Amino acid sequence: MKESEFNNINLDRLRKLFLKYLTVDSNLQDARRKEFNQAIFIAPSDKVLSGHQVFCNTDLDMVLEKFDKAVREFNNERE
After folding, report:
1. Could you tell me the pTM of the whole model?
2. How many domains in the chain?
């Protein structure tokens, strides 16, 4: 496998994880647990509201928090 193909696979996986954290609620209700996740955007599978924000005050910090979670999970998968 070429390095560029490997990088594309990694980028695709990271993108999927990021989208998951942006759009999927975890089954946990305890926000103190690190596995907890609260979606801030409506999932692409919703044909009517796909991509719309869940909260009216969604900000960049909220989005970057989800990105950080995706990167941590991605790095844990690679170890």
Report:
1. 0.79
2. 1
Q: Tens-of-pLDDT digits for all 79 residues of the chain?
A: 666 776 788 899 999 999 999 999 999 999 999 889 999 999 988 888 888 999 888 899 999 999 999 999 999 998 8
Calpha distance 4→43 (Å, rounded): 29
> CA of 29: how far to CAs of 19, 37, 42, 62, in Å?
20, 9, 18, 18
* Parent domain of 66: 3-78
**51 φ/ψ sector (left φ>0, alpha ψ -120 to 50, else beta):** left
Task: Indicate the SS3 state at residue 26.
Answer: coil
